[in-house]
Amino acid sequence: MLPYLLHRRIRLWIVFTLFLGMAPVALWAQTINFQGGVSISNLHSVLYPTVYTFLGHTRVDPSFSIGMEYLEKKYWSISSNVGYVRKGGNEPGSNTDSLGRPIPITNLSETFDYVSINTLFNLKYPLKGNWEPYISLGPHADFMTSHNHTFYYFDFPNVLNKRCYGMVYAVGIRHAFSHVLVGLRAEHLVDLTPLVHLGDETNYTHTRFLSATIGYRFRSKRRRK
Questions:
Q1: How do residues 122-134 score in pLDDT, each as one tens digit?
Q2: 2-217 CATH
Q3: pTM for the complete prediction?
């Protein structure tokens, strides 16, 4: 009961923080950002008390997002983003047809599509030549829109979590060409909510991103401390 209440409080805190971050976007947005690249994901399983690899071979899928940056200061800012992400994993193995005859070894794959939102605190350090490296940290919430799977137990009631909460951390660098910002970004999702929970077995996703970013700053940046 106590772990359930703790997880519930964490989920409520994440949703509340995301709401606070998204609400002022329309009023205070100073930069709009587009991000496109790939998600690199795989799954791992915990069958208490052991951890083993299941669908642990990585898969690479397209991902994209759009966001706003606001409250921009010289060394920090806040940003809120919404986008599409596909999570999942691959597992080489064999299967059987409806008559029980073996099918040649194939690549079993599970995919889960989400709308993902986050609000991040960004620390940055302006360099000469209009370069700006940064690190970002904040909560995220993912809402499943569809899935394509091989293993039947994903269809069991109350097994597949269609909402996922956790944290995001990222590093990146961008260059300013007047009002246009171009850069590269690496990102990692830390999911606090398991994808699947069935008895003593729990499946989690590991998802990373490599992306190119392009942004537009609506007005001249004010250098503030």
A1: 999 999 989 999 9
A2: 2.40.160.20
A3: 0.78
